[in-house]
Amino acid sequence: MKKIAILGSTGSIGKSALELFDGPLSDYRAVALSANDNVKEMISQAKKYKPKYVAMLNAGAARYLRGKLKGVKVLSGIEGLIKLAVLKEADVVLLSVVGAVGMVPLLSAIRKGKTIALANKEALIIAGELIKKEAKKHKAVILPVDSEHNAVFQAMQGNKKEYIKKLIITASGGPLKNTPFENFSKISVEQALAHPTWKMGKKITIDSSTLMNKGLEVIEAHYLFDIPFEKIEVVIHPQSIVHSLVEYIDGSVIAQLSNPDMKLPIMYALTYPERRRGVVKPLDLAKAGRLDFCPVDFSKFKAFSIALKAGKAGGTMPACMNAANETAVHAFLEKRITFDKITEVVEKTVSLHKNIKNPSLEQILKTDLLSRQAAQEIING
Fold this sequence. Notes:
The structure is a single chain. The protein is of the alpha/beta class. Among the domains are: 142 residues, Rossmann fold (3-Layer(aba) Sandwich); 115 residues, Rna Polymerase Sigma Factor, Chain: A, CATH 1.10.1740. It has 16 helices and twelve strands. The strands form two sheets. Strands 4-3-2-1-5-6-7 form a seven-stranded parallel beta sheet, with helices on both faces. It has a five-stranded mixed beta sheet with strand order 11-10-8-9-12, covered by helices on one side. Helix 5 packs parallel to helix 6. The protein is globular. The chain starts with a strand and ends with a helix.
């Protein structure tokens, strides 16, 4: 039995993980759960899975739960998330909170030498250099949960890194892959959220629509696998059957394929190095039929290019880019800006930022805050 601390249990990844506890991982235990402010869902989860600890980022939500969850230690704020991230009794920390808020809990878990199943890409984006250094220093293990990075991780097993020629990350293309760029200003929130193959949270789904998500994934892959940017390629693959590929110097290309279901990479990260019989529908290649691949249209999806440029610049530039994107996506979801303005806000914010090389945690946090303020000012006009 493994004891798991799930940070972000009321989101799509957290819910999928808990569903695994009802099936192939029935011998696993959720020792701790966390959420932002969804008290209704947390009460339901706590009653069913009986965690020892619960943390709510929202202090008011935590106060409310203390009167509802008897026998459960309820924590609050970022301090609560940090306490869950470093729990001694947790064998694995599943970090699936959304956005930059995951960075400090991740670093805290790393500094305790924890095993982390990482589903929060933003933390690695904004502090990749620092996280990479700390993980090596404290011998922490980071197992990727994102389907693309989990696929790369699987395709790398048994091979030396020096044999890798390049990583090939696939992208579905999102719900707007066939929408002309000139129509982007008219895209509704509902259209942007209508992903053709994946059921995800709102923020990541909008990022998939702009292809910002794929730019973030390239940066994440760079830090996770210590692979140069020039050796990471992205291709559009609408069927979402091939989740990523690794090409080796001898010409071999090893891919990981499956029907699109996040339970598979979640389970592999939690059970690694073992495998369990899963809940994913077996892949029938004959029924799947054709598998298509095409290059990214950089002129149409400018957010992808902006993310790559920020990643290559390093320093505090990725933190600035990520903060501006989170702010712009939030504004779009609230219908305060049009879809095409998301990328425009990010581009303007990044152009104003003075990059700091080899930043400290404090400099990264300050960049995150100031970039959100700058993006908001651009949004407000």
